[in-house]
Amino acid sequence: MSAKIIDGKQVAVDIRAELKSEVAKLAEKGIVPGLGVILVGEDPASKSYVSAKERACGEIGIFSDDHRLPVETKQEELLALVERMNKDPKINGILVQLPLPKHIDESAVLLAIDPDKDVDGFHPMNVGKMVVGEKAFLPCTPHGVIQLLKRSGVNTCGKHVVVVGRSNIVGKPVANMLIQKQEGGNATVTLCHTRTKDLGYHTRQADIIIAASGCPNTVTADMVKEGAVVIDVGVNRVEDATRERGYRLVGDVDFEAVKEKASLITPVPGGVGPMTITMLLYNTVESAKRANGID
Ligand code: L34
């Protein structure tokens, strides 16, 4: 079987069109959603993601307040900026792009963000709400994965999903979202990680594989059941002298081989990445609505 490719870019375009008309309705009420964007340092991948997020904001009518800080920025300066954004009524969401430089305590910064403006869903308050099934900002990449499955007609109810990777950004939250007793959840979830013995033993039993290890070729064709759905969250830059940029992007899945066994598969680029950005826009619009008593 050759898999159908899930077009994440197209799904992102569809959701952004929906959001754009919501933003237009808010504008009639004089409401403009605002996103505070903070990038510390010069990491090339982070710079390109942040620029893409700001461009996407502009396209649907979200105001973005851009702050690019030097790598040597002190933690107190960063915390002071977050505090200003917490108090600024024009700002409905705050994005502190990760990773932060090593001298900054990431969890202290995430804890400083007002949970009502935590559009990344990384604050422990929102993580806790998500785990107990209360309404919360859902982290963008896992939420993007859930939306991709839903909009591709994949029902997770009763399915065995194997998640590969236990990061706070992807693995842990996506596993949690999939076990929730609600639409988009109700799955049986196995969470695998670097200490898992015989990863292939687990993935071969999966109806759905979510690869979020951060390492190319983590999932190879021999590890995939015929007809499985494969979602590749990885975005790895590998050197490639034949490309103008000097690198190409690959996911965590051996795409060429795995697509011959899967029924549905996401590509990299053009799979989960555009959805991450889209769900950030979604959360920012939600936050603006909540701040104005619209639900
Ligand atoms: N605070 N930090 C915070 N929030 C996030 O949600 C992120 N993440 C991850 C890294 N740090 C973060 C992102 O924004 C990963 N991530 C992200 C965002 C966008 C894309 C990939 C990862 C993306 O657009 N990927 C494109 C290719 C982009 C390219 O050409 O480099 C794709 O099609 O996959």
What's the short version?
The chain has helices at residues 8-28, 44-60, 75-87, 106-112, 124-132, 140-151, 171-179, 199-203, 255-258, 272-291; strands at 4-5, 34-40, 63-69, 93-96, 160-164, 188-192, 208-211, 229-232, 236-239, 247-250, 264-265. With 295 residues, the protein is α/β, with parallel strands linked by helices. The strands form 3 sheets. The chain has a 6-stranded parallel β-sheet with strand order 1-11-8-7-5-6. A 3-stranded parallel β-sheet has the order 3-2-4, with helices on both faces.
Class of the largest domain, according to the CATH hierarchy?
Alpha Beta
**How much of the residues is beta strand, in percent?**
15-25%
What does the largest sheet look like? 6 strands, parallel
Helix content: 25-40%
By helix and strand content, what is the structural category? Answer: alpha/beta
Q: What can you see in these coordinates?
A:
The protein has 295 residues and is of the alpha/beta class. Helix 2 (44-60) crosses helix 10, helix 6 (140-151) crosses helix 7 (171-179) and helix 6 packs across helix 10 (272-291). The model has no long low-confidence stretch (mean pLDDT 98). The strands form three sheets. It has a six-stranded parallel sheet with strand order 1-11-8-7-5-6. It has two domains: 31-115, Leucine Dehydrogenase, chain A, domain 1 (Rossmann fold, 3-Layer(aba) Sandwich); 140-273, Rossmann fold, CATH 3.40.50.720. The chain is built from ten helices and eleven strands. Bound molecules: ligand L34. Ligand L34 binds at residues 48-49, 52, 95-98, 120, 140-141, 235, 249, 268-270, 273-274, 276-277.
